Amino acid sequence: MFPPKPKTKKFVYLDHAATTYVDERVEKVMKPYYGKIFGNPSSLYEAGRVANGELNDCHRKVAEIIHALPDNIIFTGGGSESDNLAIFGVTRKHANFGKHIITTKIEHHAVLNPIEHLEKESFVVTYLEPDSRGFISPKKVRAEIRPDTILISIMYANNEIGTVEPIADIGREILKYRKENNSIYPFFHTDACQAGGVLELDVEKLHVDLLTLNASKIYGPKGVGMLYKRRGVNIVPLIYGGGQEMNLRSGTENLAGIVGFTKALELAQENRQDENMRLVELRDYFYDQISKKIDKIKLNGASLGNENSRLPNNLNVTFMDVEGEAMLLYLDAYGICCSTGSACTSTSLEPSHVLTALGLPYEYAHGSLRFTLGHCNTKADIDYVMKYLPGIVEKLREISPVQMGNKKHAKYK
To answer: For residue 246, what are the contacts with CB-CB under 8 A and spacing of at least 6?
Structure first.
């Protein structure tokens, strides 16, 4: 039998990489923009001018956080839109120069799908393979740059396995290439949605030309994000109309959402060091408990202990001989929320493209769970999960139609 359900089911949310709840402080600053400061920022009368002033303040505040200029910031409808704007915006503007793109096999689908679409428009794409822990080599990036390469897109931190890529080192390699070849190409874009609350976002230190962030991963509202675009990087818009956001993202601005995003980013960056330390301690305790109480497991992504190489809240574990979807559903019955991979593809029965890119066999990728911790989580939450997770895994292994045997596990222990 599965572990008996408690009389009072606790709600334990361990899927902060999918989305986060809105911080009360963020919700508070957003409230006036629904009823009091509601003017269209493009309007000339006072209510519009007041709204426009608030919008300009948000441009300025976000620019200060990432060490950019206010006109470098384009507010959008979320991370996916920002990724699409960067990719389509660059490639369609600069296609006359070249049609070669470099990306990786472990990008979010908000990057991979637009690039796959561009392949149908005669663009040529190089997909870099990560090593077994998910790292992309800066030297390999440099080696793949061609005279017709116009865009390189590599994520800052992976949403599934938490690996933090050496973006600054990659950026330096790209800068060297440009200097040696007296060229403005290739442009360098990074999807930093998972990094917004935990990593440094100084675009000068990262050496990026375009950077994507969104609010829903940093305790802000859903449906709002931004794209940083360095001066001198010309792109074309996805959405045409009234010419808002420097003529690059038309549509009446979601001022309440933008204010919420700005506040969420301020809070995340102010508190990230202390919160990172707390999350690392909690994450490591969680993995220690899993290791002690469940056999035949494998940690996916960068090793624990080097906090510069893995997101502090990410734990991606393969449980051999168990289907991830089954584990997820049984955990849900006990009030525990986690993921089997990228939340945006949770309806797919295919194994994670990230895990298979690391070289994991099909069955191993299918048996993975992603736990991502956040502000609300405590040691008591982990202890609650560990009351039920070992028993769920044990029971599912008993009834699993696939028993691979110890020899097949040896390579991945």
So the answer is: 71, 74
Cα angle: 135, vertex 309, 271; to 5 degrees: 140
Per-residue CA distances from 119 to 91, 101, 126, 209, 262 (Å): 11, 9, 11, 22, 35
298 pLDDT above the threshold of 90:
yes
Active site residue 344: yes
Q: Which two tokens stand for residue 60?
A: 């300025």
34 pLDDT more than 60: yes
Query: Which token pair is 366?
Result: 């299918």
Task: Exactly one of 337, 338, 344, 376 is catalytic; name it.
Answer: 344
DSSP secondary structure string, 237-301?
-SS-SS-HHHHTS-S---HHHHHHHHHHHHHHHHHHHHHHHHHHHHHHHHHHHHHHH--SEEEES
Instruction: Give residue 405's pLDDT.
Output: 42
Tell me, rounded to whole angstroms, the distance of Cα 8 from its chain centroid: 34
Other residues' Cβ atoms within 10 Å of the Cβ of residue 180: 8
Give me the amino acid identity at 311: L
Q: Which domains does the chain have, with CATH numbers?
A: 12-21+272-400 (3.90.1150.10), 24-267 (3.40.640.10)
What digits encode the pLDDT tens for the residues 72-131?
999 999 999 999 999 999 999 999 999 999 999 999 999 999 999 999 999 999 999 999
Query: Cα(399)–Cα(193) distance, rounded to whole angstroms?
Result: 39
Backbone angles phi, psi at 184, to 5 degrees: -90, -10
Whether the model clears a pTM of 0.85, i.e. scores above it, the answer is: yes
Alpha-carbon 397 to chain mean position: 32
Residue 101: strand pairing partners: 125, 151
Q: How far is residue 297's CA from residue 313's CA, in Å, rounded to a whole number?
A: 19
